[in-house]
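Q: What structure does this chain adopt?
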Amino acid sequence: QVQLVESGGGLVQAGGSLRLSCAISGRTFSSSYAMGWFRQAPGKEREFVAAISRSVGNTYYADSVKGRFTISRDNAKNTVYLQMNGLKPEDTAVYYCAAGFIFSTMIHDYDYWGQGTQVTVSS
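A:
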């Protein structure tokens, strides 16, 4: 079983920055999984934000966050990060990290999910 716990969310003004963390625990090594960040705003479907591959560290971003967000991983610490700069009110959502065996933008390709952390960007 794999557990994911997000942290680092909060309230920030537009243009500000936040760094989200996702701690991975369980009977496995974090390097076994591709990791993704997704978000869900009120009344909207959950959407892909960023993903990072297992070992090589290839990354992929949604167009809406490209150039502003950076996903990274520290396998020694079993932690994945999402650095968010230049935040906009439309970035307001609950952010979820997810683990899976496929480097993917698709929700159904991820097997484990965290509980989410709220990010609110004020204008």
